Amino acid sequence: MPAPVAAIVGAGQAGFQAAAYLRQEGFAGRVVLIGDEPVLPYQRPPLSKSYLAGETGVDDLWLRPTEFYAKQQIDLVYDDAVTEIDRTKRRLRLVSGREICWDHLVLATGARNRPLAVPGAELDGVLPLRTLADTDTLRRRLEEAHEIVVVGAGFIGLEFASVAIARGAAVHILEITLQPMGRVVSAQTSQFFADAHIRWGAEVSLATGVTRIVGANGRATGVETTDGRHLPADLVLVCIGVIPNTELAGKTGLAVDNGSVVDEYPATGGRSIFAIGDCSNVPAPFASGRVRL
What we know:
The chain is built from six helices and 21 strands. It is α/β, with parallel strands linked by helices. The protein folds into two domains: about 160 residues, FAD/NAD(P)-binding domain (3-Layer(bba) Sandwich), CATH 3.50.50.60; about 130 residues, 3-Layer(bba) Sandwich (FAD/NAD(P)-binding domain), CATH 3.50.50.60.
C-alpha cells in the first residue's frame, strides 16, 4: 500500500509550519509543499522593517535553508499555483499542468492586498507591500522618492512610513478611521504610535480617504483626498487590509465566509481537507463566534 500524501497549498508561514510539524510529529508519508512564488518560504514581518530598510539581506528571510527541505523529505514545489482541486479523485491540478494526488489536503493559501478602488490606482508608482517582490520594488523606488503618501495606517503602513522618513522622504499618512491600527490595539497605543510618527516628521490625516490618484505620463504625481486636498506624491503605498484567498475552496464546494470555514481541528466540511492561517475562519469562544486572524 503506498504511503499517504499530505499536500499543502501555500508556502507562507502557515504552510511551511504545517509541513515542518508533520515531520516533527512523525508523519511518515510524503509531504508536498506548493508555493506560487519563485523563492524559498520566507518571513513576511521583516519585509516592512529591516529588509525594506536594507539592514538585512534576503538570506535572512528564509524560514529554513534549502538543505532543510531535502533533509526532512519535504517536496517543495516552487513558482507554481494550484488551479483546481478534484475532491472525488483527490487530485490537484497546477498551472504548469502537473497533477498531484493527495490523501490529506491543507489549504494555506493566505491573503492578498485589498485594492484601492479609485480612479488612478493603476498608475505607475501606486504600489502594495505584501510579497518579497513588492519589497524589492519599493526598495528601488525609495532611492528616488521624495514625496510619499501612505494610504492606510495599519502596522505595515506605519512601518513603511518610518523607513521612508529615515531615508529623508516627506511622508503623509492617510487613515479612513479615527485611530491608527484601531482594529488591533488600544486607543492609548494607537495615540503613542501616531505621535511618534508625527514627531519623526510625518503628517497624519485621520478620518480621511482617497477619491482619486492623479498622474502624468502614466506615473502617479499626487493624491486627492475626501476632504478636498491635493497631496503631491511620486510614490503611493496602498495598505488598506487584505482579502483571504478562498477562490480554490469556494470553487470546490467548501464553505466560505470571510475565509474558509473550519472547525476547531481545523477541518473544513470536505473529508481530509483542512484550512489554516490567513485564509481560515475559525471558531473563537473568546470572541463569542468566529474570527479570521
